[in-house]
User: Fold these one by one.
Assistant:
Number 1:
Amino acid sequence: MADTTGTADPAVIAGTEGEGIRRRDFINIAAVGAAGVGGIATLVPLISQMAPSKDVLAESSTEVDLAAIQPGQAIKAIFRKQPLFIRNLTAKEIAEANAVDVASLRDPQTLDERTKPGKENWLITMGVCTHLGCVPLGAAEGEVKGEFGGYFCPCHGSSYDTAARIRKGPAPKNLEVPEYEFTSDTVVKIG
Amino acid sequence: MSFPWANHYTPSHPVMKWMDEKLPLPRLVYNAVGAGYPVPRNLNYMWNFGVLAGFCLMLQIVTGVILAMHYAANAGVAFASTEHIMRDVNWGWMLRYAHANGASAFFVVVYLHIFRGFYFGSYKAPREMIWLLGVVIFLLMMATAFMGYVLPWGQMSFWGAKVITGLFGAIPVVGEPIQQWLLGGFAPDNAALNRFFSLHFLLPFVIAGVVILHIWALHIPGSSNPTGVEVKSESDTVPFHPYYTAKDGFGLGVFLLIYCAFLFFMPNQLGHPDNYIPANPLSTPAHIVPEWYFWPFYAILRAFTFDIFFIPAKLMGVLAMFSAILVWFFLPWLDNSPVRSGHYRPMFKKFFWILVIDMAVLFYCGGAPAEEPFVMMSQIATAYYFLHFLVVLPLVALMEKPKPLPFSITEAVLGSDDAAKLAAKS
Ligand code: HEM
Ligand code: FES
């Protein structure tokens, strides 16, 4: 093979470079290395474009006025294009939730941990079953609430209690409590 | 590669000669599916389904490309554009029904093709690569059909997408970010619909590419046959054309009769009425079921209602569902019997039919609501399914005494083979 960048005699190269590394090996490693890093860097936009876009993220908080919801009533709102359940618990429902031995739960959490201090009657959760994402029943008037009086998912039969904790069926976790804060006594900002 | 006695391509027309020197495409066709490809003389109709699967792929590509000319992949109008195809586009109803029922026909044909492989041991050496590529095609088909079903943006489309992408949420720690990444949002919406359309358009062409590799791999050893005995001499084979072009052509006719009966007389029989209701993210249909061709695997998914050690039920279901197909990749090495065909394997044959019944039970449970007794039936059938592949097949291969094999295909067909007599004499 013709050699155009210098001598091919290893002895001569070793002599001139002093290290025993041929110039070509160095160039080869540097070039392949740079191309590799460049190639991997190109993957970043290719992968990241699939993630939620700015406009989807911009819709990611919602405000709801709770004034009209009576104790024992619940409403469905929309948060991040998914159903959100807001429920005004009755004293009886709160007592039921607190009577449960937390250690016996699949996903142990107390009602207090799932609500805000002083607002224990407001149970705000996603309306998304933690099994495979169906919308459980029990928020709207007349829907079945399941054997634990909270929510019941018709898809594969998960039952949630009055603190929306998983009690029976295939779902692994309690209904998710999103991040939220009370901006006034009756208005919550979710997300 | 082919057998030494294969017919040779000898173009006589000057134009064909000219062509052969520049681009020997006619030669390729002649050697692949023409008179230049010798095929075992004893293939039965179970060997028809490969050609039929190829036909279905072409059918889906042609009808699909046409649907894509009228369909709009935007969550605001997707449902309306599908109805526009049904009501306004000339022959649109027929093209859409042809595509929707074509998907079902494709799966019928491919399932029969796969069970042909199970029974006749087509996955065994030297045909492992053909089998592995086949499993890849099946996985790609499932992905394609799933994404296609989302496109009309009806209730089943939406909730199907939600449940299936929800499966990824079962992966510990990274599950939820992966799910959001796949959907491009927090729930199926415009971003998801658009990417599903893009991939639904692309994947069939990827499948076509893998099909070419599948057939390339097939042409190295050539087709197996119902006896499972390899081709020995010219008398064991006939040229593909005209013998199997004619036989496959007849089979295609029968297939088309059945397909057209569905297409023209009961086009919605295999679909779900719920999918004629526009997608509604706030209300789940009472009974979410996938298309029939996913039922056996859906039953396996739902069979796990209890945690196993530290693995949550939901993750177990997902792992089991994917493993149910991935186990096929190991089939050539799980079944070690040197005899290919189930005809000569009395014990294997019984277990084959038990597997068929087992999968029929899974199929039935996958379409039924998630209640007892179906949950328990799915659990038993799922356990047996894995037992069959991981325990029964290796054991049967060790224990069974196969029936004597014929000397050759010719002997199996004609009752005697001159070559066999010669071999016996010497
Ligand atoms: C492997 C081959 C294919 C399979 C298994 C398949 C499967 C499906 C299925 C199950 C549907 C839903 C039908 C319905 O419920 O109405 C569908 C819809 C659709 N497919 Fe395909 N498809 C394939 C190839 C293609 C190709 C090649 C294209 C375009 C290039 C295409 C374009 C479409 C379009 C535009 C729709 C939406 C319209 C509709 O719902 O009828 N498909 N496909
Ligand atoms: S999605 Fe709710 S129980 Fe399966």
Number 2:
Amino acid sequence: MTSLRAELAKLADGLLSDSVPGAPETDFTISPEKVDDAAAVLRFAAKSGLRVLFWGGGTHQGMGNAVAADVVLTTHRMSRVIDWQVEDLTIVVEPGLTVADLEAQLQQRGQTAVLPETAPGATVGGVVAAGLSGWRRLRYGPTRDRVLEVVLATGDGRVVRGGGRLVKNVTGYDLPRLVVGSLGALGLIGAVCLKLWPLAAAQGMVEVADPRVALSNAYRPLAVIETEVKAVVYLAGTSEEIAAQAERLGGRLISGHRWPDPPTGRWELSLRVPAGQVPRFVDRIGSHGWAYQAAHGVGEVRFAVEDEGSGELGAMRREAEAVGGALVVMRAPADTDLDPWGVVPESTELQRAVKAAFDPLSIANPGILPGGI
Amino acid sequence: MLSGLSRGWLRPRGRKEDGRLSRASGSATRPMSLESDLIATLGPERVHSHPLELLVYDKDAGVTRGKAIAAVLPETTQEVAACVRLARKYQAPVVARGAGTGLAGGAVPAEPALLVVLTRLNDILEIDAEARTAWVGAGVLNLDLSRATEHLGLHYAPDPSSQAACTIGGNVATNAGGPHCLAEGTTVVHILGMEMVTATGDVVMIGSKAPDPSGLDLRGVVVGSEGTLGIVTKILVKLTENPPAIRTMLVTFDSIQAAAAAVSGTIAAGIVPAALEVMDQPMMIAVEGFIHGDLPVDAAAVLLAELVGLEAGVAAEADVVERIAIEAGATSVKVAADEAERALLWKARKSAFGAVAQAAPDYYLHDTVVPRTKLVDVMTQIYAIGESHGLEMLNVFHAGDGNLHPLVAYDAREPGSEQRVRAAAEEMVRASVAAGGSLTGEHGIGLEKRDLMGLVFDPVDLDAQARLREAFDADGLLNPGKVLPTGARCYDYDLGELPGGGAQ
Ligand SMILES: Cc1cc2nc3c(=O)[nH]c(=O)nc-3n(C[C@H](O)[C@H](O)[C@H](O)COP(=O)(O)OP(=O)(O)OC[C@H]3O[C@@H](n4cnc5c(N)ncnc54)[C@H](O)[C@@H]3O)c2cc1C
């Protein structure tokens, strides 16, 4: 390790940093300032057989299989806005920029990247890598539909660019969409170009009795969220438009948006099922008295569990898998028996080959994906 | 089945040492052949190999031609898989083909290949009105799906102008766009999953009705892969709710630049209409001669803008679009009074290429994309390029996306005309790229733009794409010679050579 440390220290001159709170203890913590530095570190790691764990805001490190790492690579020094084309509604940012900072900047020009509304500390790179979408995806689609270009430092230290800074483009394979949800298995996201949306003139919420009925009565709401407390339809548009929507929904219009905080507990889970199945699973989760947030029309239910003893999570997972869905662990106690992913996807062998195309020695977040990819 | 062909290609062939297919043709015949195996699998009616039968398959709607060694018409996924396995056995390349309306030569074999035609996988398998999804066979025609879901108040949003003829499988393979993809997104946004036959002849399911598949999400790279990563046999699509209110406007301008400025201005003002299409005067004259729709043929350019949503919002946005258009120099604004008028405007838009096809002996339809802020600039250059080559050019394009479609009408019998057309094409691509744009917005790379990929990607980027392709198809069986330029995979990346020394 000493000679490795010396070599790495030379390579990462000035980039070695103290370990990050919350991150696993490793021999090296490196905080590159640009993607080329990150690639050089990855190249060195690949040559030296060191495994690398990527660290953004650390808010979603509970996802996926545990990664045994020799090096932690953090993105907090890569947090610049590289190019914001306000009039073309695109922005290029580095991965370490927090979602909150990005959205605050965008808001000043009446724009949004539609990234998760409640993710304190989460970084753009982390959210893209984890494939997380905000509540407003019901109207604006998931995060994968707004990553237009990506620069990736691959697991063997190449710097690869895919896509383009254009809202429409079919030039070459869609690497940006491949990177979304890849959880660092292909390499470190060095920059992304995001498609932006204009913020609507007016925003409002209506509390409803039956979210399912509301979903079919409202015209393209931003979100229909049900929690153990209430169900709320989120609206945006001109003030006349949202007033008309509220009337159609038969409820009182509350102005502005307040998003529920994600449920927290010892186990934090994301149930992903066909949208029509949400009510059934909500009933089941509710019957245990667990805190939940269900995205109607989308098919995701986030919920938290304090005490899992009964095997109910495993049973629910099997039911979700039977309808083509999944029960994904977002956070769990270290000693849990619950697999982070559940059944492996049918395309696992193809996925393994794709991983190898970017990270042939499997050093980038090794094993984090289903099937130990 | 007709016989009497030279069938050197039908022999099983050896593999070169590097693991790639050896495509040297020989002349010896063997009793066992790809053709006889295909016939044994599909029956003689669904295997075409006579040159006359193959004539219809030697091109798509673009200008490039190629040769198929046979075309097969499977009816099930299992038959598609069987055809791929047979092609693999004889080491014949495989090219998937939908309706053949592609414009980049994607379905045209770059080297003699087995064409797997998907048009008979044309069943709409399931429509789930509550989940707003449908499972369709790859050969279902785009428009047929929207027709089949109309009574449910739903439609399939991507609407290429060729929607009455092209297949959804072809749309997936090209990531097709259309006028209404401005707000709704191109095909990829509407594809939730697919069943795919891989290069090894296996069947794999990717994605599902549930959001966010676990593991690497392969859907995005399969969409737009032009048949190079697999043959898509069934597709799970998202259906879109029909809007309660629609406002369709036709705005006239006395220059194309003014129309383009109105488009850039609308986007910059934070409005994302359902569609923003621009047509120039030469195109309008051609269309008018075709549909006799009383179009404003005296205007230099028109903007077709459509706003959808709730009445209150549509009215407010229409006012803004109108104001911006007038500021940009609009000479008139007309709102379609009823569904019949609206339908006529869209008929004009969508029959544009058909109108030219009827009038001109030959045409070459371009497809590039630029940032929306550069529309005025690039359109000016495009006209100048056409003029400098003495070409007759007509324009109708998805302006709101920055997706340009200059169309050159010419007569291929005129000596040198094709060279001029191609030279102009490359200049237009270069002008778009120089403005921060790219090679293609929706028609794909295919054969047509393969050798221009280096204009937008470095060797390292192209090499990464080639490696990705190899992950799906190690032997280069599927649609070889498309999308990536030859030699893309030659970027030599050797960890041992890198600074720091000490290879592992
Ligand atoms: C008049 C006209 C107007 C057009 N307008 C538009 C437009 O507005 N927007 C637009 O995007 N395009 C447009 N196009 C182009 C064309 O219609 C689209 O590219 C369409 O998606 C092609 O579908 P197809 O079924 O004809 O596919 P084909 O042309 O048969 O094939 C296209 C590509 O897809 C591959 N492929 C086909 N099926 C499969 C499958 N099942 N699995 C794997 N690969 C497959 C082929 O190998 C090929 O690479 C237009 C074309 C014409 C002639």
Number 3:
Amino acid sequence: MAPKPKIRELLQESACSHNKSRSGACNAPKPGATTGGCAFEGAQITLFPFADAAHLVHGPITCLGASWETRLTGTSWPGRDLTQMGFTTGISTNDVVFGGEEKLRSAIDHIVHHYAPEAVFVYSTCVTAMIGDDIDSVCRKATEAHGLPVVPVHAPGFVGSKNLGSRLAGEAVLSQLIGTREPEKQTPFDINLIGEYNVTGDMWQYTPLLEELGIRLLSTLSGDGRVASIRTAHRARLNVLVCAKSLVSLPRQMQERYGIPFISVSFYGKRDTSASILAIAEALGDAELVQRARALIAREETLLEQKLEPYRKIFQGKKAVLNTGGNKSWSIASALQDLGLEVVATSVKKATEEDRYKARQYLGEQGVLMTEPGQEQARIIDQTGADLLLAGGRSLFTAIKKRIAFVDVNQEKKKSYGAYLGLLNLAEDLNNALHNPVFKNVARRAPWEK
Amino acid sequence: MGEVIRRIDKPLQVNPFRLSQPMGAALAFLGIDGCMPLMHGGMGCTSFTKVFLTRHFCEPIAIQTTAVTDVTAVLDGGDGSIVEAVKNITAKVTPSLIGLHSTGLTETKGDDLRGIASQIDYPMVYVHSPDYEGGLESGWGKTTCALIEQLVAPCQQGRRNKVVLLPHVSLTPIEVEKLKEFIAGFGFEVQALPDLSTSLDGHLGEKQSALSSGGITVEAIRELADAGLILSVGDSMRLSAEALLKKNATLCHRHFPHLQGLEATDQLAACLLEFSHRELPPAGVIRWRKRLQDTLLDCHFALGQTRVLLVGEPDFLSGAAQLLREAGSQIRLVLSSVDSPQLDRLTADTVLVGDLEEAEKRQQDFDLVVGNFHTEALARRFGKGLVLRGFPNWEVVGNQLRNDQLYEGGSAFLCEVANAAERSRHGH
Ligand code: SF4
């Protein structure tokens, strides 16, 4: 069994262009001024979509109690969908005093016995890391006893952010699963999708297109994923990293270890989707495949344009202000532009240099990159005459005061905005928001208000 | 009375619905005007809590974390990160109170909250709420207790017409408001502690606020002992009532395990008549009692043939079970998140402290589920009727508007359950 990953090393990730500006100190969260999830949450997000595996959280109820069944990560797994189930040792005072290893061992037995998963992921959390439970040893013995991978995931919340947790999860997969089984067959166009979690079925918007081109998904980490296939991931011809900087260390290490090249892509909006499909084809290095890809892109874009036609008129001349974080600050901007809206401002608060750069690329010189969106957005709406505010729930009242339409972009998504067809969903939602009189209605003054 | 199983011999929880003590503590602090709950632990606990409550209430949730890391967990006795957190919070906002509450991590370390709080020159209440024991109810109850012990000024006598209401955590904002109105209808001035009725409901216009808004003020908490009567609702609030009695020995105290159904509401009305020296309640109350009687009869046929599974926090379970029993429902199985004296009082075939795997095992015993969002998958899987109640309830809107208490809320609840039972019997 591999030793625990070296957290400091992961923090110094080299293949990460935004890393230069993020040296050690900023990685420590500031007490009293921190938002965002812990490393455990990041690990959970990264691995939970493996529907054939059970996910056992070794800790008190907090860690799992508030986090299971929170994300709609679609799966085509025909068995019982373990991504929508929660397993926790739910340790008690007694375990804190005497240690939780025995309980963990029996919990794994219970799961294997009752739910027959392909693998069990065991997540350590702050308390169980603090009391020093030897999870590695429990997992090693369980692996031997049950004859299936029981994988320890060392991402207790207090070691850092969600992003770090994702990396640690990637690390666990690399050291424990990848390369432990051979695929039944191989094709020259086998790829791994990394960092796509298939939330609301996002990946199903584009994987049929890849398949149509003859590109085969050998494995995914971990949207609609299977443990059985990630074990064969070392035989892929290409690693495709989807919108996930946090996982970049994994393909980099796979490149070193197995010589698999990797590319980063995004399937948000028309331009990015087309560029990504082409990039995958080109990276696989087959001239005919590239040609087929170009033809498919042309076909899909034409089809999309036809379907978008009725929306074009509605969105023409409409201006939007976007206030959200991370890669959404430019990826949603790009999608909005694809629909014909003008994005006059986007938020770059807490954005990495790379996100900032991309945001500038998409918005052009005229666009405003807001560093304090909470204070700036109202003024920018006035100055630009924006018609639409896309932001988190906290900004709703700004839209109401300004009497413009509002879309909550941070809400847990219910439908996919991914790839070509997702753009239609986005168009429909924006159209509905723009025509909804509710924002003006609720702004009515009560008869007794001056 | 059926069997009560307090402990299942099982090394894990499968599909758990128990929620954590720190979350209950945070929620109680949110019932105070201008408060900043400060969770002492890793940042993830706070983040999960914030997202969870935001989705449940559809309101912005003010909460901060001391963001303990693997490094500070070892080097710092808590003083460092707490002092730092208070400094960073007060640099941006001016809370009326900082509500310091611990988690499993910092309790394992053994941080001395009391010592640290006493060194900090800022209004602060601290509470020990490790998540490896108790649950949502106890976190809320302990925090209410701490607020009383640490803030309320002792006094020798009180005002006869002032009532202190101590509501348990499962009462929704509208339910607390309805209880306050009901009590006020008998001529009393009412203060609720905590008071979510004004803080986590109906807040258009204040969404930007970084602190809790609405709720009981810190000033009003200090003066709570200057009352005549304490009404505690739910067994998790008993300790709080006792803490308040210590502040003023002349206070009267009446405890209600719950306020659902005809009998419990009658008892509250009788109590309020006694203390207000009135002969009759307000006319509206009399009207609603008749409506509830009528509803009990209207629903008895559908409910009498319905076998129910109830899932949730003990104080909620005891009320819901009683109300449904009054109309003849067969309470086959009650699943409680934690142990409580309430469980012995429940009229049910089986009462069990456990997880949803237990419900799955016994799915042949019931036709309809009353429980939180996590029971939806269970109900769908086995084709059971479903009425959503409790934390969390993410996928439906209107959690704040649902009132199941007293004569009025009882009528609405019974109709909702009876309709759901009929619908599921006809296969919808
Ligand atoms: S910070 Fe630690 S205790 Fe809190 S949720 Fe994350 S892993 Fe669990």
Number 4:
Amino acid sequence: MLKYSLRRILGMIPMLFLISIVVFSLAKLMPGDALGGEIDPLNTDPEYIEEMREKLGYNDPIVVQYFDWVTGFVQGDFGQSVKYKMDVSDLILEKLPNTIFLGMMSLLITYVLALIMGIYAGRKPYTVGDHLIGGLNYLGLAIPSFVAAIFAIYFFSFQLNWFPSNGSVDIMVQEGTLDYWLSRLHHVILPAIVLGALSTASYTQFLRNDIIDNSRRDFVRTARAKGTSRSKIYNVHILRNSIIPLVTFLGFDIVSIIGGAVITETIFTYPGIGQLFVNSVSSRDYSVVMAITMMFSCLVLVGNLIADILYGIVDPRIRLD
Amino acid sequence: MSQQEKDLLQVKNLKTGFYIEGELHHAVADVSFEVKPKEVVCIVGESGCGKSVMSLSIMQLLPELISKISDGQIFFEGEDLVQKNDREMNKIRGKEIGMIFQEPMTALNPVFTIGYQLQEVLFNHTTMSKKEARERSIELMKEVGISRPEKIIDEYPHQLSGGMRQRVMIAMAIALHPKLLIADEPTTALDVTVQAQILELLKDIQDKEDMAIMLITHDLGVVAEVADKVVVMYAGQVVEDAEVNELFANPKHPYTTSLLGSIPKMDQEQDRLNTIGGIVPSLENMPHVGCRFADRCPMAFEDCKKVTPQLASVNGQHQARCLLNKECYPADHPEHKEAISQ
Ligand SMILES: Nc1ncnc2c1ncn2[C@@H]1O[C@H](COP(=O)(O)OP(=O)(O)OP(=O)(O)O)[C@@H](O)[C@H]1O
Ligand SMILES: [Mg+2]
């Protein structure tokens, strides 16, 4: 497994190299630059601008610029954010924990809801409960997440006043105390539910159908012929089989969660990577945009690797080597 | 002692059907036979004649919702299994009655080890410790001829061949010394050489364990080798039931005669098997009056399409369901009365 992972990681290098070229080209093709966005309107002396451009390396040949960027990147130097006037890596490290927290919570919500509903519906297919769950899920699939987010803010924050509508933590509380963590949890719940509900519907239906399929397989008849109880057949024999595809989704979830966070974080003004990304695009803070895009690309590759490794762990028929 | 207690298994007028477009169609329509303790009974008949449905009825393992036992009784040691609920049946399945199936490739759960699946039957019915169950499993695997059981016990089904998996299935079925083993075409899916080994194994086990076997098979060669008694089924019904030598020497139903005629003979050069023309009618197209075999029967005569034959004793224990035997006419028919008066 270790050897397999190492080989896969080595295999990612050429992929990342290609991605870096695309990311860099896109950033360069976009109109304007960070300097243009940040320049002091009172000091538009062309000599000064030219001096700054020279200093920032904007006048170097494009290939040189690319290699400067890549060299810095592999050494962990992602450049400076022109807007925030700080290292991009520090900026990302500051926002990343919020996004990871939001992602974890929403994953938890997705899997808990999908497991409960999917197992129930799969065990009692074509009953009222199953139809109810099915209906709920189709509703969930039909509503776009930004609509759900706005509705949730309006209803649960403004009308009922149950949850805060923005931020990641109350500014009044002391960092590290229990209140601090409770406040963070309080802030993350609403966006996490909106983000988590996104994939719940498809997971629930997937699990339900897989359980129904498996309950018709021959091995279920064998287990019953041994005198195994019905509940054990569902909870052990069938579930252990149906959980395999679900677990492998986990790897891809890492990607879709971060993608979904871009929208959710913006609507909830939740200070995470997604929000940072959107803000950086609109202020043309390209060093941040490029760093985050590269990070997403790495995550996609790593997510795939995690999916494959999980597959090897949960399914004894798959051997990784 | 009543007959029901003397017989290990007594199936009486069993009817099992499937709902097709809301209507119940009987795949097993009036099946009766007995299995005595330690007896080997073979059930033969063409594909689709209801052998599997009948054996699943005994174990109450039919697919739920779409199927139903609509009539009849299944006495096992004097108790009617049809009346039992799932919890009561779970005490019998695997312990009193073991079962093995046709498809060893799919019969085992792919994500659990052989050991887990073997030990499960032990844990279901006994209070063995983990260690005892493991030891017993290894012992069982040796009994069914699995070499290196200490290694195989921790392997997964996909690492084993079909023959090996069927041995595991047999080990599971006999783990608690059941009084009856139901084997539904246990060798059909296997290579010829492996078939012979598995059959040999079943015979050995039957000798050692003193259990009764209900063996479902297409292969009359196998029947001749192992059976004490043969039950011939056609289109959901028992058409003949006799002790094995009697049946081979003196078949009373043209269907049995055709089956016997279709055994390939090793010493004869034969271009093709002497098979029976036509096919078993489907559930929806089953004739309601007359003999179900009439359309394909080389000996059919006028009455066959008009009078429904009854299963009746034609010679002591030998029963048949064919109007060529006057006893098989319905009780109120003049031919029947004539036969009785003779
Ligand atoms: N799940 C089911 N739904 C509907 N009909 C079924 C079902 N299972 C079996 N049948 C029907 O019941 C009849 C008897 O089938 P069964 O499987 O008992 O035949 P069999 O004698 O075991 O044949 P084979 O030798 O091929 O195993 C067939 O006509 C079949 O189509
Ligand atoms: Mg069958």
